[in-house]
Task: structure prediction
Amino acid sequence: MAQLSDDCFAFGGPLMTTAEALDLLAERTAPVVGIETVDLRRARDRILAEDVVATRDVPPTDNSAVDGYAVHFDDLDAQAETRLPVTGRAAAGHALGREAGRGGAIRIFTGAAMPDGCDTVVMQEDCAADGDKVSIAPGLKRGANRRPAGEDIGTGATILGRGRRLRPQDIGLAAAVGRAELRVYRPLRVAVFSTGDELHDPGDAPPTGSIYDSNRYGLMALLEGLGCAVSDLGILEDRLKVIGDALAAAAADHDLIVTSGGMSVGEEDHVKAAVETLGSLHFWRLAIKPGRPLGLGQIRGVPFVGLPGNPVAMMVTFMRIARPMILRLGGCADLAPNIFRVFAGFAHKKKAGRREWVRARLAADGEGRLVASKFPREGAGILSSMVEADGLVELPEDLSRLEPGTVVDFLPFNEVSR
Result:
């Protein structure tokens, strides 16, 4: 697979816009994982590593769209009722097996192959059966209720493209053309750790002044939502050697290392120094809120991502900046989430030149329009806001004041949490 250059994350310019950062990351990153073949039952949420090309038509033959009678159109009287003998029967998986012949009707069922010599199907509700004969009213069009071969998929068509993250409907489509296995990228192996002597795992009984490590668990859940194989390195002591040893060991058998916090220059912030000792680290100063500079680098050739320590800032920067990069490293080509237009139900002031994400809930107003209401507390440490909100209102750099009733971009959490 492609290897990242040693300086792919180097950036020494001024504040970057979100769009500039995303463009640079897309340009400088490539898949870093190998390829394997899996059966369809194990393909959901995997990233396709090949183009899937149809080797047959779907449906493979002309067939009936309804239960009824297959006839030759020219045997029907356009002005009066036509009475024809029933000369055969065709069901799905049981073709007539012979030429139908003119002047007769073939009893046919939905999905059955059209008999040779028949070009039209009369719905059973539109005719009257009487023993071995059927009466057909006038007014039918030639080719009615007949589905042509290849109506859904034609032989030679590319039905699924490389880099696609496979959904249930994609897997069904692959099965429809006879594929039992697919070539997919291996899951990205990601190591996650936290640092901080004040942190404790949920379930512990922490001493006064300590806190539970929420970021690591939220971060692992986000990564697993992307299909990553996550290794939990736990909470590392605030000691340079401990952190350095853990990073070196993780780089030996992982494709990516991710952490949050501990990237400052204080006496107890050792992550930055450890990364720089083992490789390189660059801080990307982004014009965003919430968020802080994003730490991007490599540890012995393995990409490293250092996210902000505040839980809301960590999640937002992961969803909008780190997520597309991580998907790209894992082979995915479709990186942009769907963003929807809704009405703002609040006023808001912001600094021009900076992109902001406002936590909001959606509700329909009296006219049935979706309106976003801002969560009342905006702090980057208020994790409950991410639970109470449905998603993020994304305010662009050129906006400085938002008025109620303005149409805004809304990013639902379910678009960026998987």
In short: Residues 109 and 139 are 21 Å apart (CA to CA). The domain at 63-147 is CATH 2.170.190.11 (Molybdopterin biosynthesis moeA protein; domain 3). The chain has a mean pLDDT of 93. Helices lie at 18-28, 168-176, 214-225, 240-252, 271-278, 311-329, 384-388, 413-416.
